Amino acid sequence: MTKRDLPYPYDQDFREIVTRVKGKREQTRERLANSLKVASYLKAGTTLIERNLGSQEPAADSAAGERAGVSRPGDERALGERKPYWSGIRFLTERALIRETEMIAPPFLRLKGDGPYRSTWASHDDYITDLLAFVFHAMNYDPQYGAARETRGDWLTDDGSFADAVDRATYHELEAICRMPLFRLQLIMAATAHRNDGIHDAIANNYAGALEPWKRIYESTFKVWGFRLRTGVTMDQLADMLAAVTEGFAVRHLGDPQADVVAGGPPGNLVGMAVLGLLNSYLEPVDRPRGPSLRETFDAIAERSRHH
Question: Do β-strands 283-285 and 227-229 pair in parallel, antiparallel, or remain unpaired?
Answer without folding.
Answer: antiparallel
